[in-house]
């Protein structure tokens, strides 16, 4: 009986540790992506993404309608790698992380700065997949606006 109780206690306390490890790995993947962007280091950015990552934005058009805009990750990285005077700094807050087996979702409000100048804000939503090389971003979709930023 004593062994059964000890085994159950070990099981109960080890399950959150596994979840924390996945959550930490997920956060680190997203952080690496943005650290790479701040450093204009596309190799660092690539280390955080899957080969066929999809990059999209939910955009408000001038006529008031909403559109889903798909961007090329290759073009995005070329923009990041192009010499620029100011740092591209996307400051995110990890608001919600959900995990089911090898799939994870991150909901992250952000504020984007060029150097010290505020540009826009919104929410990034990341989908990640656990691979043999760790968590990789497979999908990014965001919103963009100039006001009503989430704190």
From TrEMBL:
Which InterPro entries does this UniProt record tie to the protein? Answer: FrzH/put_lumazine-bd (IPR039437), NTF2-like_dom_sf (IPR032710)
Q: Does the keyword Signal apply?
A: yes
Q: Cross-referenced Pfam families, in alphabetical order?
A: Lumazine_bd_2
Would you say which domain of life the source belongs to?
Bacteria
Q: What is the name of the protein in this document?
A: Nuclear transport factor 2 family protein
Q: Does the keyword DNA repair apply?
A: no
Keywords carried by this UniProt record: Signal
According to the record, the signal peptide region is 1-19
């Amino acid at each position: 009986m004593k062994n059964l109780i000890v085994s159950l206690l070990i099981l109960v306390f080890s399950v959150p540790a596994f979840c924390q490890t996945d959550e930490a790995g997920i956060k680190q993947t997203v952080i690496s992506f943005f650290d790479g962007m701040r450093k204009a280091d596309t190799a660092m950015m690539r280390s955080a993404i899957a080969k066929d990552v999809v990059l999209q934005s939910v955009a408000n058009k001038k006529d008031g309608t909403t559109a889903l805009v798909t961007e090329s990750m290759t073009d995005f990285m070329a923009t990041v790698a192009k010499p620029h005077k100011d740092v591209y700094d996307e400051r995110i807050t990890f608001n919600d992380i959900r995990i089911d087996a090898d799939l994870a979702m991150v909901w992250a409000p952000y504020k984007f700065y060029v150097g010290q100048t505020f540009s826009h804000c919104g929410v990034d939503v990341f989908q990640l997949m656990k691979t043999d090389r760790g968590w990789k971003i497979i999908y990014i979709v965001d919103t963009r606006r100039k006001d009503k930023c989430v704190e």
